[in-house]
Amino acid sequence: MLITKAIEAADALCPNDYTLDEKLRWCSEVNLALRCGVKKLYDMIETVITSPDDIELPDDIPPDRIECVYIGGRLITRVDFRSLPYLSGDVFTERFGITFTSPQKMKVIYLTTPAELCDIIIKGSFNVSENKIEADELPLYEGDNIICEVLDSLSDEPSFSDPLDTYVLENDGRAVLLTDDIFTPGSGVNLAIRRVIDDETEAEAPYDRMYIEYLLAKAALYQHDYEAYSAHMLQYNSIFDEYKRDYKQRNPLNDLAVFKNIW
């Protein structure tokens, strides 16, 4: 189910005045719970270190999402990894049998989290070519469907009634490359850019109804209707647990986090 369809279904059952951004944030909470508690999808980064002092993680990978680390082909568990910053070189070598007479490969396996759902609308003056928007650090990613509208002035409010529709092919942090030639090249072009919310729920039917129940629960909570909140959370937790059991039966083994004989 599309996230927007879940929101529409919840709104139909319980009309409310909460904003789209608030409802997207609630749906993001369900996405995160499913990704961390059920699906547990992992990724890996690899680097080379010359001493224990070189061990450093990117800011977007907190230690609590580290599953395990390999240094020089040796497994270091999550618990051991937490103590690494406090170990001297000699203690490090004694505990793990790793010496740094030469650089060592370090592989970090970490739990991924879904991107935050949000209604992104960007207004600005950009240099454009047929299929490129030049701009630093636009919050757009490969595969995003975006719609654009050329404005006479940045003070104008976009209607997006007949927008230029395309997809993001690449974003290198300095420019966004698009899949289609939609612009007339120019400099200082006033644009309104909106990311189309086409994200789907992390759980497929019939378990995607948990999003509706969670939205209804959150709405009831902030309306101080605690009886309705408890009823909807009961339904949400029931569907969540059923999906977790079903997912484990259909995906009985997830060994991505632990490699064997990787060198």
Comma- or semicolon-separated keywords:
alpha+beta, disordered C terminus, single chain, 4-stranded antiparallel sheet
Structural account:
The protein has 263 residues and is of the alpha+beta class. Helix content is 32%, strand content 25%. The chain has helices spanning 3-13, 20-39, 78-83, 89-96, 209-222, 226-250; strands at residues 42-49, 66-71, 74-77, 104-111, 121-129, 132-134, 145-150, 164-171, 175-178, 186-195. The protein has a six-stranded antiparallel beta barrel with strand order 5-6-9-8-7-10. The longest helix is centred in the C-terminal third of the chain and has 25 residues, at 226-250. The chain is flat. The two termini are 42 Å apart.
Helix-strand layout with pairing:
Elements: H1 3-13, H2 20-39, E1 42-49, E2 66-71, E3 74-77, H3 78-83, H4 89-96, E4 104-111, E5 121-129, E6 132-134, E7 145-150, E8 164-171, E9 175-178, E10 186-195, H5 209-222, H6 226-250
Antiparallel strand pairs: 1-4, 2-3, 2-4, 5-6, 5-10, 6-9, 7-8, 7-10, 8-9
How is this structure best summarized?
It contains six helices and ten strands.
Helix content: 25-40%
How large, in whole angstroms, is the Cα Rg? 24 Å
Q: Uncertain spans, ≥5 residues at pLDDT below 50? A: 259-263
Helix run count = 6
- Order of strands, main sheet, comes to 5-6-9-8-7-10
The global form is flat
Distance between the termini: 42 Å
| Strand content range | 25-35%
Q: Quick one: how many beta strands? A: 10
Class derived from helix and strand content: alpha+beta
> From N to C, what is the helix and strand string?
HHEEEHHEEEEEEEHH
Q: How would you characterize the largest beta sheet?
A: 6 strands, antiparallel, barrel
* Mean residue pLDDT: 88
